[in-house]
Amino acid sequence: MSAPTADGTGLFIGGTRESGQDVRTANVTAALAVANIVKTSLGPVGLDKMLVDDIGDVLITNDGATILAQLEVEHPAAKVLVDLAQLQDSEVGDGTTSVVIIASELLRRGNEMVKSGIHPTTIMAGFRLALKEAVRFIKKNMVLKVDDLDDEHLINAAKTSMSSKIIGKEGDFFAQMAVDAVKSVQMRATTADSAGYSVVNGGAAAEVAAVNGTSGANGAGAAVDESKSAAAANVIGNGGSNPATDTGTSAAPDTSPTENGSSTLSSSTTTTTAATPPSTAATTANAPAATSTSSSKNIRYKYPLSAIHILKAHGKSAMESHFIKGGFALNAMRAAQGMPTAVESTPTNPTVKIAMLDMNLQRHRMAMGVQVVVKDPAEIENIKKREMDITKERIRKIIDAGARVVLTTKGVDDLCMKYFVEAGIICARRCNKDDLKRLAKATGGKVVVTMADMDGNETFDPECLGTSTAVREERIGDGEMLYVHGCGGGGASTIVLRGANEYMLDEMDRALHDSLCVVKRMLESSTLVCGGGAVESALSVHLEEYANTLDTREQLAVQEFADALLVIPKTLAVNAAKDSSELVAKLRSAHAKSQRDALAGEEKEENLQYTGLDLIEGVIRDNLAAGVVEPAISKIKSLRFATEAAITILRIDDRITLAKGQQ
């Protein structure tokens, strides 16, 4: 039995223990310290951070997730915020800075309420209540459903995402590139995706119906969505219907029901379910696309960003970056100068076949541990000749299969190069394995690991060859790259980024990745909300009114939640060197008038609910007309993630740190 400690409990802990308000204050202080690091990088005029590691490598960025990932955070509560930013980055791709700022503000206000004598359980219950009401309000009043999503909506969302990045000044150019790249990898959703979508869609439809006070997908809910869709089309400018992007909602199964609730009423559902029983509508959704117009709109698509290959090359300006639609660029060059620089299709041979190998093309050598006992010295020459013949036979089988381009992840020696040069074949060695896998998907081929078949013989299956219309070696910057044009498999594209130095190229890559994620989410959900602090201000006004309807202790927590959301427009204004107090007051006034008129049933002033900040001029404006939009899922998920992170940290009231060496 351990010796009694000073407090007389008879328990001994080999370490330190903090409890009660001390540990809560320490956790909140650590979280605020992390948030203050990224706070000045929020918004289109946010500042960059320079991170220097222990060996002197420099990273310059204003991406919240990247900044926090590079920090060696030791405090356990602060690590929660770092993980929070990574989660937002993987789920949505954008909004990583704002989610950390909202979480830290909720923590700060929650800690102040605990100091005022309010129990943490009451605060957590109030935060959850406020979150639920906030999500409901966004879906009912703030979300714009755009069934016929044209390029203008997507470009506006991409420009909004990259406005705070290094390529923000060239937003028009890169936004168009991001939209083209995501659309180029469109593919039909698989059976598993469709099944996941059906499950997600069913739950979300019930939630929206409950919110709107309707039964199923009919009635006022559909009418609200239709009117909003029309409003968005009129204000932003609606192009013709685009079947390639008319996708309804996300086909990906990783979207939770409440996150996509606003996008469950696709255009076909809105127009048909009111007069069609649910069973009939379900049958129609599964019918072939050619049977009717409505069934074609029920076809779900997905946009795998992994199929978009981004290459970075030094030299020239950022505006020299280019997008290769249906093509692929490989950071590799010919293995020998005698090989042709281009292989083109001909009338007699309309396709260029590509062999992708994950094995050595070198002179065959005996494996380690194999001993060959030779009695006649003349046999040594025969062994060497046979080793060369084995390699020659392998190459001959690849050439006979029809390959005109050979790419391998391993080495190619001079002997093998001789055969390729004689056959007029382009061969590249030491290719990146991940790049070859992407190329195999793009060209409809396979990466060959071994040529051995089930009978123990060596053969090369022609079906493993990828197809394209041309393969050329082109000089880009300081080196050469192989360009594969007209890939036969489809579903892959390449963006080649040009820039002055490594830091600029890396930051362009991160900015473009965020924009690609935003466009993907927009295409999959067909829903958008206004940016520039419009959603946060509207939520703050609504939640204050909502708090007054509560007659429980949670009212105080809901009020603090409403005030905490204003940290986003305040930070945006401060970073833009504007008067945050005046701008936020004007913003709240506009949204309060909009909501008051809506409750009174009066005719609302034109689009007051879309009022946001113009940080360049320092005024408020209609951000929907200005094209400052983002996916609805980004706002909903950031609110949900931030609230859960704040609750997780507020729940802690005891911290025990074991001394090193203790088991």
Low-confidence spans? 1-6, 196-296
DSSP helical segment count: 22
Taking the alpha carbons of the first and last residues, their distance comes to 17 Å
Q: In one word, what is the shape?
A: elongated
Question: Could you characterize what this model shows?
Answer:
This protein is of the alpha+beta class and 663 residues long. The strands form eight sheets. Strands 11, 12, 13, 14 and 15 form a five-stranded mixed sheet that branches. A four-stranded antiparallel sheet has the order 9-17-16-10. A hairpin with a 4-residue loop joins strand 20 (611-614) and strand 21. The chain is elongated, with a radius of gyration of 30 Å. The model is unreliable at 1-6 and 196-296 (pLDDT under 50).
Question: What structural keywords apply?
Answer:
663 residues, alpha+beta, 5-stranded mixed sheet, 4-stranded antiparallel sheet, disordered N terminus
What does the secondary structure layout of this molecule look like, with pairings?
Layout (H helix, E strand, L loop, with lengths): L14 E5 L1 H19 L9 E4 L5 E4 L2 H7 L5 H16 L4 H20 L4 H23 L1 E2 L5 H12 L8 H14 L2 E2 L2 H22 L7 H18 L29 H6 L5 H9 L6 H5 L3 E2 L5 E7 L7 E3 L3 E3 L11 E3 L7 E6 L20 H23 L4 E4 L5 H10 L2 E3 L4 H11 L3 E2 L17 E3 L1 E7 L2 E7 L7 E7 L2 H24 L1 E4 L3 H15 L5 H12 L1 H9 L4 H21 L10 E4 L4 E4 H4 L2 E3 H19 L3 E5 L5
Parallel strand pairs: 7-18, 11-12, 11-14, 12-13
Antiparallel strand pairs: 1-23, 2-3, 4-19, 5-6, 8-18, 9-17, 10-16, 11-15, 16-17, 19-22, 20-21
Helix pairs in contact: 1-3, 1-4, 2-3, 3-4, 3-22, 4-18, 4-22, 5-17, 5-18, 5-22, 6-7, 6-16, 7-16, 13-14, 17-18, 17-20, 19-20
